[in-house]
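hiii so um. not sure if this is the right channel but i have a protein structure encoded as tokens and i wanna go backwards to a sequence. like what aa goes where. can anyone help
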């Protein structure tokens, strides 16, 4: 069974990477490489869940991850970091040497946003889900550092930018968007996508059970 899983990850690595030196073809190197797609896949799943459950708060969450990605692009334009790491495993993005790391900033935003959601709205927390989320997050950061996709400062900058963006977006949702959810749900474009609910319990706002 271990051999089967090892081969599956090896085949996945062939699709996601050009080569992995000097690690090829170790299981750990390929596993660290594939975790770098967690942030992007999670964003897609957030949007899909918002459509599936007709929940506008989940849509706000998805918009936040998109805004965070645009912020990363803006920071890369404004900050001219010429330092280049020497990647030990080239992925299809091949974006080493840019400040801040997109993958780390994306995953940091998701983790911090979920943590602040749990604190602000006293949400029930599944310990297993939290553990899996933190393991994936650690894998992304470790991949950036251990496989030399980014320098330490590029990773640290990504953690800071992702954290600040998540806190700011949670503030915007709480005070600028949620009070107007009943009005937003009545908009034709929102009704077209059949959004009818919100996860947050507030006066006049239905709560997803």
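sure thing!! here u go:
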């Amino acid at each position: 069974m271990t051999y089967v899983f090892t081969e599956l990850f090896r085949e996945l690595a062939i699709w996601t990477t050009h080569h992995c030196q000097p690690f090829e073809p170790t299981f750990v190197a390929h596993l660290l490489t594939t975790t770098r797609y967690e942030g992007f896949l999670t964003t897609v799943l957030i949007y899909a869940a918002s459509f599936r459950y007709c929940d506008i708060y989940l849509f706000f969450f998805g918009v936040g991850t998109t805004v965070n990605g645009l912020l990363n692009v803006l920071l890369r334009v404004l900050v001219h970091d010429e330092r280049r790491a020497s990647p030990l495993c080239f992925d299809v993005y091949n974006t080493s040497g840019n400040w801040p790391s997109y993958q780390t900033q994306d995953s940091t935003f998701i983790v911090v946003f979920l943590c602040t959601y749990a604190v602000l709205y006293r949400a029930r927390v599944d310990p297993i889900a939290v553990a899996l989320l933190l393991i994936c997050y650690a894998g992304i950061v470790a991949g950036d550092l251990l496989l030399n996709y980014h320098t330490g400062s590029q990773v640290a900058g990504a953690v800071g930018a992702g954290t600040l963006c998540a806190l700011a977006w949670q503030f915007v949702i709480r005070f600028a968007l949620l009070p107007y959810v009943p009005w937003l749900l009545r908009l034709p474009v929102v009704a077209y996508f059949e959004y009818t609910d919100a996860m947050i319990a507030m006066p006049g706002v239905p709560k997803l059970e």
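oh and The mean pLDDT is 76.
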